[in-house]
Amino acid sequence: MKTRLSLLATTATVCMLSCVQAPVPDAGIALFGGFSYSGADTCYTHHPLTEENAFYNPILPGWYSDPSVCTNGKGDYFLVTSTFSYYPGVPIFHSRDLMHWEQVGHVLDRPSQLRNLPPQHVSGGIFAPAIEYNPHNETYYMVTTNVGWGNFFVTTKDPFGEWSEPIRLPTVGGIDPSFFFDDDGRAYIVNNDDAPDRKAEYDGHRTIRIQEFDPATNRTVGDRKILVNKGARPEDNPIWIEGPHMYKINGKYYLMSAEGGTGGWHSEVIFRSDSPMGPFEPWEKNPILTQRHLDHKRSYPITCAGHADLVQAKEGDWWAVFLACRPIENKFENLGRETFIMPVKWSDDGFPYMTQGDDIVPLIVHRDGVKRQDGYATAGNFTHTDEFADTLLAQDWHTLRGPATEHYSLTAVPGYLALKCAPKLSTERGTPAFVGRRMQHHAFESSTDMLFAPADTLERAGMVLFKDETHQYLFIVGYDGTNKYISLEKVGRQGTEALARHALTEQSPAITLKVVSDGKHYAFHYATKKGRWQTLAEEVDAAHLSTARAGGFTGSLIGLYATNK
């Protein structure tokens, strides 16, 4: 299933010289004849999968944060993750065994479902989606926060198809809502909100609240109630309890939440009650998932684990999906928070947990009875190519804050992505002529073939390594009034800095751009004739695109870009 993106009818006129020659791009248009991406992380080469029931963690590498999972009880599992200010919103994945995941679309694939995105920064927008299936009306619900607009949900009977228009939840404040459908037919929404009476005793003082929900009217009913104040150990002033989920297991109600913030102190905690309205008592051995106390010098560390969701497989075993990070030398990471999976264990007193003591989040997980299948290149060192042969963008591409269909076309020149140089910069809070996909490895190589003949000194096009509005590398072709040139520019909080620049004397508009990463540094190469690579810059600091430098909630993307501003 392809993402539903309507395509612009570009005003550019592109003439084909022959059936074998490359097209000539019109002024203001950059044509990209393909894109390739290949991962080369040593963690995978040093840890090959030797058993047929072994699978790599993360199950969704690269920036797939805040995972939520559900099942319809018939062997289908669906998983969603955050997208913040990227479009389309909330990718949805399907699996039949919890190990092989295939993206089947986006939940929020129409501008009408994404209110108030245009003015938001990259880490605004859609926070922490939660997906749940209501067996009483056989309906799937996805509820989330659109920062600046509020909490809302959408529904569908067919998660492979379209979802409804957004239904706002005006009585539910705060962030991170999720549904709980009880077996008696009643329904509830739990979420993170302010401290009682908005009187925080310290920075990060939050609460988990609940309100009943009526599926017949799609409205909340009754009063909201605080279930948890501060966190699992209130006497320790825990910070940022959030991302709650509720479950009913063996007649008991479990409330699970993230705690400790999104960095190295991140964790997951659990509470239990005889009623969805509480009171909830924390488990004495909380947290049930964390890596915060482990040796940072261990090989291939996985950190920041938390924001989990539980699911029971049709075979009866329990699993947890959650986010975590894979830092380089415990200093930075550019991939963002990724989606991991672990089996759930049960304590003697009936509490679920994933880690205790020095348990680590494993790089490799096993599931009995499940064999690896060919064709599921969602983990490990895979290679991805896009020849732009379809009329719709593939599902792994994103634009910023809107569909950007006024800026690109896949039909104007078949076999090419045509990007129109737009009067919007990648540093601005708008929708530039940019399409990008997640970096999914620390070490990778990515390249594209571009046809571009800038007509004036404002038109520029090429590749961009993008973290947010003030943390980017622009690898672009332009015109200085006399000659074409290729340049590398570093976008930072203080402005844009030119790192390297070469004149291009060839008359042909064709050029190949290549970025090579070893995790710590980027190298930028180009070729105006096939196979004749030239180096524009090497040893370029990769940490500039990290959350450690930039902050925010997303990972970095690599993509294609054009502007005339």
3D structure, described in words:
The protein is mainly beta and 565 residues long. The protein folds into two domains: 194 residues, Jelly Rolls; 298 residues, Glycosyl hydrolase domain, family 43 (Tachylectin-2, Chain A). Helices cover 1% and strands 44% of the residues. It contains two helices and 40 strands. The strands form ten sheets. Strands 1, 27, 29, 30, 32, 37, 38 and 39 form an eight-stranded antiparallel beta sheet that branches. A six-stranded antiparallel beta sheet has the order 31-40-33-34-35-36, with no helix packed on it. Strands 16, 17, 18, 19 and 20 form a five-stranded antiparallel beta sheet that branches. A hairpin with a 7-residue loop joins strand 17 and strand 18. The chain is globular, with a radius of gyration of 24 Å. The N terminus is likely disordered.
State the domain count.
2
**How big a fraction of the residues is strand?**
35-45%
Q: How large, in whole angstroms, is the Cα Rg?
A: 24 Å
* CATH level 3 topology of the largest domain: Tachylectin-2, Chain A
- The CATH homologous superfamily of the largest domain is named Glycosyl hydrolase domain, family 43
How many DSSP helices? Answer: 2
Q: What share of residues is helical?
A: under 10%
Distance between the termini: 35 Å
What general form does the structure show? Answer: globular
User: What profile does the largest beta sheet have?
Assistant: 8 strands, antiparallel
CATH architecture of the largest domain: 5 Propeller
